[in-house]
Amino acid sequence: MRRAAVSNGAAAHLHFPQQHASQHAAESEPAQLADLPASESDAGATIDERPASAPPRPVTPLHAVQVTPSASNGRAVQLADANDVERMADDAALKTFHTFRTFDYSVSLLFYPKELKYFVALFQEDRMWRVLTTSDMNTARQLFHHMQEQATRLADGETRRLQLEAQNEQLKRLIAESEAHAERLRRGLQRTTEQDQAVTGRQHQLRKDLAQLEAQRTAAQAQLNKAHRQVHQLNVANNEAIPHIPR
């Protein structure tokens, strides 16, 4: 009875077509009653009076399926072991078809002639980071361009950092040049101011000297005029002392 109850409970959550349910119930019900002990015959009769419900249909167990990455065109792409690829590169077993580099990131399209395989490897600081492999040349080229775009995106920060560093260096240089120019202008202005002050002082001293010289000239001219008058007076006096001789 316990097994019948479990079967009915499980069937209550499953829905099947009516004809399959009736056939399955007809085949499975006698086996369930035969398994019951004689002391539970009344309970078995009670079960026979209930409407037969279909037990759950056997479910096929699921098995894990290995999924292989594939390119957009459906050709197989697989992850490769970076250690194996590095070992083949060290043994000179790989041929390089294409190489792309941007800052610390690089992408290489490698060919393994022994097995006709292509490897597309992404490097970071010359260390192999990710490797994909395929046997189709067109797929390998698509993978190479895809990783090239990925490397470019990864290097965008490096590109921006380098640009900002260059701009900052340029700004520092312009600031230094501007400060040096301003210092030259300050020194020139200071020199001009000092020269203006020197010229002003010189002109002031010159005016004083001119005034003194003019005063000296005036005094000397007055003294000269006085001397001329004295000479004239002496000449007149001397002329009067000369006797007059008639003609």
Automatic annotation (TrEMBL):
Coiled coil: 154-230
Region (Disordered): 38-61
Organism domain of life: Bacteria
InterPro entries: DUF2968
Keywords: Coiled coil
One Pfam family matching this protein: DUF2968
Name the record gives this protein: DUF2968 domain-containing protein
